[in-house]
Amino acid sequence: QSVLTQPPSASGTPGQRVTISCFGSNSNIGSNSVNWYQQLPGTAPKLLIYNNNQRPSGVPDRFSGSKSGTSASLAISGLQSEDEADYYCAGWDDSLNGLFGGGTKLTVL
Amino acid sequence: EVQLVESGGGLVQPGGSLKLSCAASGFIFSGSTIHWVRQASGRGLEWVGRVRDKPNNYATAYAASVKGRFTISRDDSMNTAYLQMNSLKTEDTAVYYCTRIRCGGDCWSYGMDVWGQGTTVTVSS
User: Fold this and answer.
1) Which of residues 60-99 of A touch B (CB under 8 A)?
2) Average pLDDT score, chain A
């Protein structure tokens, strides 16, 4: 079981806004920032959000991140078919070891 | 082009060893922290470990599941990082990715912004 908890699945229709949650604890999300990764089928993960709410160059502003206390969220607005992928939150613990959430499979209906 | 390329994966028997390589190009390798992340088929991502840069004494850290069996190292002159895997178990079967954080110390908040394509390790008799 992952230390960071995500719902296994999420879905939405094109144009809709969907959110994916990530729950942790005081020793990880509560005291450190959160990153989010997108993994399209058959490909390597891609950095989507870093430092809670920062987008790397080239990531559309449809993607946004937030953090509050020991939880974080990824929001995708204007959902598109190409957004269908697995999404992972990530952080680190007090020992500075890496942590990934279990992943959320997003389906665009 | 900024890229990481893994190699060295393959089939190995339980208890055996394998060494993966991660060759970097297009960026200042010596200033980056290199991480290894694995993914078993149909499963999520699992952090394996990391090696920091020279100013941070090439410090390493490992997930509990691999500590004492896996060793991460780097050769900045070759722009290459390595993952030495010993005493392999069937549960180590996975695609192994190397990835970087563009600073050499404790800077997880930058995120892993460059990933290799992965190399497959299969541990089976």
Assistant:
1) 86, 88, 90-92, 95-99
2) 96
